[in-house]
Amino acid sequence: MVIPVCTPLRKRFLIAISLSIFFGFVCAWLASGSNPGIWWSALMWAIVTNRLIIGMIVGLAWVYLRHPVLNFPIPAYIRGTCLGVFVSLSLASGTMITPIANQNPWNIFFATLIAGGIYGLIIDLAATKWGGEGKELLK
Fold first, then answer.
1. Residue-level pLDDT at 135
2. Is 94 left (phi over 0), alpha (psi -120 to 50) or beta?
3. How far is CA 59 from CA 13, 56, 130, in A?
4. When you count CB atoms within 10 A of the terminal residue's CB, does the N or C end of the chain come out lower?
5. Is residue 74 within 8 Å of residue 28, measured between CB atoms?
6. 0.85 exceeded by pTM
7. CA distance between the termini of the chain
């Protein structure tokens, strides 16, 4: 039996995925405050899946230490925040299609983007701290 070696790249990806699944359920729990019927619905799975995608993209973004076009350094906190907000755009735009009764859709839209940025920030900082980034992951 071969025991798989946890390379730094695998470690970074596993940290990012684990945190994103956790944040997906936290986000669903927060959304249940205004929508109690969310549990085990399509909306809950959309939220969890969206947050999982944030973790996957942040986990794989270890190669971007500099902006690919403008060539300025991109620290983990900026990279994670920007990726979290960008991935959250699809989930946030859904709030404008089917608004929740007695809720301002713009408030939910911006709350979704802010939460995505915060989750991306935390995921990238943790994955970078305990998993690494850049050429050190290729060892």
1. 80
2. alpha
3. 5, 5, 12
4. N
5. no
6. yes
7. 23
